[in-house]
Design a protein that fits this description.
single chain; alpha/beta; Aldehyde Dehydrogenase, Chain A, domain 1; Aldehyde Dehydrogenase, Chain A, domain 2; 2 domains; seven-stranded mixed sheet; six-stranded mixed sheet; globular; Aldehyde dehydrogenase DhaS
Length: 482
């Protein structure tokens, strides 16, 4: 059974209760890739009802932890088996390079296997209570029906980040992918069915923001896990108040990358090039404001400009492309507008600064862009652009660095480049960010918790900490006599 762009509810593909559909486009060409269903309020109700039934069904609720682990492992095997196909689909729908996308599929399989192992390790505790004759112990139990709302920049990977711990804990889910990139999530639903996930445990609703809003407000949903913009995250917090559902949020970032006077400049250039332009800069963890010691700033800027000017911009499906398109025409306009504001505020464009032309003009391509002469107060240094735009900020006093790095609403990622390991540790401790990288690219691992401070979100994904937001702790008191 295949999706054909339909909704997946209660183990069945359906055209839904409405008649509205929408197109998903190839950002490299602007051409239509496929059509998906715009879920209605009735479809949201149907998905919540299906997930509620499945949560109560003894076949799922009573499934032994080892069996649930084997189920996740089978799904991991299928994702791995179809990594080539999934990577190509992700590349066409999102724009990232095929090789990068296929690597993401391998990471998704690893994530599923990691949480498959947790199924048999969700242990409670015996509490040393001081009440005579009483035994107290705790159980880790699933929260219930979970809405997993995912972004367009890493569609399948982030869906799996949420899906794996949710299922490992015994919840049921409704996945709502971004309307720009629904295709790999729909394919993932097919693989879930093939793996033997019981009907109703995994449901997929496609559509725009209104579908997500209905899920967040629905009293039958007990938990929302969202990755996306900070502004939408704030809306979700307000909308979730009706039944006080649990909320975890992985939101925006404006990652500072600090290049100390003693840094290996060549390593810093390479690291910031790759870390700043990962997925064409469309990543909340991308290094997106560079603080460089004034004695090294010219060397750093010239070398970075040289590397950027030689990058190949093109479709993700082209094997020699190093930088793909923006995900949509709307997002391309946003990136372009920020570059214009940077110039208006007095920053100098060293490389790039405009849309790609020629054979790429029909797609949503923007040249890799480097600014110098940037002041910390400028919009391009403070706002999340989410594109291939890198601002270089010179500094003279190292004692100002921590204050500058922390002078932001965000706190997701930061990076330090230094030859002094002790200095790297000190700065890592002082910077307020959920992840701090010293002399390296931004990276992930299933065993490492992921999340931010401040306006970058609530809670953590990955590692055993991810299970905290998908479980409730129940205390049990037993009178065992004196």
């Amino acid at each position: 059974m295949t999706s054909n762009g339909q909704l997946f509810i209660g183990g069945e593909w359906t055209a839904g209760a409405g008649t509205t559909t929408f197109e998903t486009l190839d950002p490299a060409t602007g051409q239509t890739l496929g059509t998906a269903v715009e879920a209605t309020e009735a479809d949201v109700d149907a998905a919540v009802e299906a997930a509620t039934r499945a949560f109560a069904d003894p076949g799922w609720r009573g499934m032994q932890p080892s069996a649930r682990g084997r189920l996740l492992w089978r799904l991991a095997d299928l994702v791995e088996e179809h990594a080539g196909e999934l990577g190509e689909l992700e590349s066409k729908d999102q724009g990232q390079s095929v090789g990068f996308a296929q690597g993401s599929m391998a990471g998704a399989a690893d994530m599923l296997r990691y949480f498959a192992g947790w199924c048999t390790k969700l242990a409670g505790t015996v509490s040393p209570v001081s009440v005579p004759g009483m035994l107290h112990y705790t159980r880790r139990e699933p929260v219930g029906v979970c809405a997993l709302i995912t972004p367009w920049n890493f569609p399948l990977s982030i869906a799996v980040w949420k899906l794996a711990p949710a299922l490992a804990a015994g919840n049921t889910v409704i996945v709502k992918p971004a309307e720009q990139t629904p295709l790999t999530t729909l394919r993932l639903a097919e693989l879930c069915a093939e793996a033997g996930v019981p009907a109703g445990v995994v449901n997929v609703l496609t559509g725009g923001p209104e579908v997500g809003r209905r899920l967040v407000e629905h009293d039958g949903v007990h938990k929302v896990s969202f990755t996306g913009s900070t502004d939408v995250g704030r809306e979700i917090v307000r909308a979730s108040a009706g039944n006080l559902k649990r909320v975890s949020l992985e939101l925006g970032g404006k990652a500072p990358s600090i290049v100390m006077k003693d840094a290996d400049i060549d390593a810093a250039v390479t690291g910031n090039l790759l870390g700043g332009l990962v997925n064409s800069g469309q990543a909340c963890a991308a290094y997106s404001r560079f603080y460089v010691d004034s004695s090294r700033v010219d060397e750093f800027t010239e070398k970075l400009a040289g590397a950027m000017s030689g990058m190949k911009v093109g479709p993700g499906t082209s094997p020699d492309s190093q930088l793909g398109p923006m995900v949509s025409a709307e997002h391309l306009e946003k990136v372009e507008s920020y570059v214009g504001r940077g110039v208006a505020e007095g920053a100098e464009v060293v490389v790039g600064g405009k849309r790609a032309g020629g054979d790429l003009s029909s797609g949503y391509f923007f040249e890799p862009t480097l600014f110098r002469g940037v002041d910390h107060s400028m919009e391009i240094a403070r706002d999340e652009i989410f594109g291939p735009v890198l601002p270089v900020i010179s500094y003279d006093d190292p004692d100002e660095l921590v204050a500058r790095a922390n002078d932001t609403q965000y706190g997701l990622v930061a990076c330090v480049w230094t030859s002094d390991v002790a200095q790297g540790h000190r700065l890592a401790h002082q910077i307020r960010a959920g992840e701090v990288y010293v002399n390296t690219l931004p990276m992930l691992d299933p065993a490492a918790p992921w999340g931010g401070f401040g306006a970058s979100g609530w809670g953590r994904e990955m590692s055993g900490e991810a299970l905290d937001s998908f479980t409730e702790t129940k205390g049990v008191w037993v009178n065992v006599g004196t």
